[in-house]
Amino acid sequence: MRILHVTKKYPNALGGDAIVVQNLEKQQTKNGHKVFILTTNCDEILNKNNLIKFGLKDTPSNLDKIGFKRIISLIILRLKISKILREIKPDVVHCHSVDMGYVMSKACKKCNVPLINHFHTGLISIKNTDKRRANLERYLIRKSRFNKIITVNPNDLDYNKYSNLTFIPNAIDLNKFKEANHKNKVLTFLFVGRIDKLKGLTYLIEAVNLLDKDKINFKLNIIGDGDDFYFYKDRIEDYGLNTKIGILGSKFGDDLINYYKSSDAFILPSLDEGFPVSMLEAWASKLPVIITNVGAVSKVCTNNKDALIIPPKNSKAIADTMIKLIEDKSLRDKLGKNGRKLVEQKYTWEKVNNQIEKIYQQVLKK
């Protein structure tokens, strides 16, 4: 089978979609398929024989916004996609961005190539804070008439407007992650994600400030980058928490894995999520997880079994739950052990790719 993945980001321009595409490419190539990547024109994205870049040169952070360069690049994609499809001759196109999928939909229909769109945030149905974006995406879905829609948020299945909707979870490469060593003199929490207000960092920093006033001994490392990086860096300094919180920027590959390995607990206080890969990475490292009850969390996690689930936008709940883990080693061990077991059972790339290849077969038969 000849498979074309279409994605905004691809290593080393990192994001959840980039990691998904890279791992699907690896599994599908292993299974004997010919895989191609169509992606944006970023210097950070590695050049390789099976990869095609399009559009204006841009930065990874701009790709998550609909700005001038992005709009021009989408127009360029619209003009070039028919030629690209004729040259590659894919059996199926797997798109990882709804606006790119919309731009490609007419050409795919003309070339009689099935088009699948993959939502990595589950924005089809969740009660997110940006209604305009949600309404736009629903409009693009309706106009694109995708052969199949994949969502990582099981809650989307309740939104029965789309009969071609299926849930397939995120996954990780389990072999890369080893059990955390838990040898820190001071218990160390880890946050990994985009540095953005939607990730709940305002409430997390306030929680750390509450605990610092009570002289609770611990450390928090924040890993990631984004538009709000310097906003939160300044806030940490304003609170006088520089010795308590390290805001470390982006980490990749073995560097990131080593931070998981050298941590004692993981925390993700998001206001909005689909199916966070960082949660799977923490579980794979046998870290206990604190996570807010948003997106797919309630259907993926079991409170007090493999995670501690707390309400969003609640600094006190974050602080109280952090104390709970600081004081209870047996609870930390139980949550970490059960999280690792859950990943082994459900969330490896081999298992998830098998589900996706079945989707390919279904749309090809139709």
What are the segments in which pLDDT stays under 50 over at least 5 consecutive residues? none
Tally the helices.
12
User: How are the strands of the largest sheet arranged?
Assistant: 3-2-1-4-5-6-7
Any guess at the CATH architecture of the largest domain?
Answer: 3-Layer(aba) Sandwich
Largest β-sheet summary: 7 strands, parallel
CATH class of the largest domain, please? Answer: Alpha Beta
As for the CATH topology of the largest domain, it is Rossmann fold
Mean pLDDT: 92
Work out the strand percent. Answer: 15-25%
Straight-line N-to-C gap: 16 Å
CATH superfamily of the largest domain: Glycogen Phosphorylase B
The class by helix and strand makeup works out as: alpha/beta
SSE string, helices as H and strands as E: EHEEHEHEHEEEHEHEHEHEHEHHH
Q: Measured on Cα atoms, how large is the radius of gyration?
A: 21 Å
Helix proportion range: 40-55%
Number of domains: 2
Please tell me what the overall shape is. globular
Total number of beta strands: 13
Question: How is the secondary structure organized here?
Answer:
Blueprint lengths: L1 E6 L8 H15 L3 E8 L9 E7 L10 H21 L3 E4 L2 H13 L4 E5 L11 H14 L3 E4 L13 E3 L20 E5 L8 H13 L5 E5 L5 H11 L5 E3 L5 H9 L3 E4 L8 H8 L4 E4 L4 H4 L7 E3 L4 H13 L1 H18 L2 H17 L1
Verbal overview:
This protein has two domains: 2-171 and 348-365, Rossmann fold; 174-346, Glycogen Phosphorylase B (Rossmann fold), CATH 3.40.50.2000. 43% of the residues lie in helices and 17% in strands. It has twelve helices and 13 strands. The strands form two sheets. The chain has a seven-stranded parallel sheet with strand order 3-2-1-4-5-6-7, sandwiched between helices. It has a six-stranded parallel sheet with strand order 10-9-8-11-12-13, sandwiched between helices. Helix 9 links the parallel strand 12 (289-292) and strand 13 (308-310). The model has no long low-confidence stretch (mean pLDDT 92).
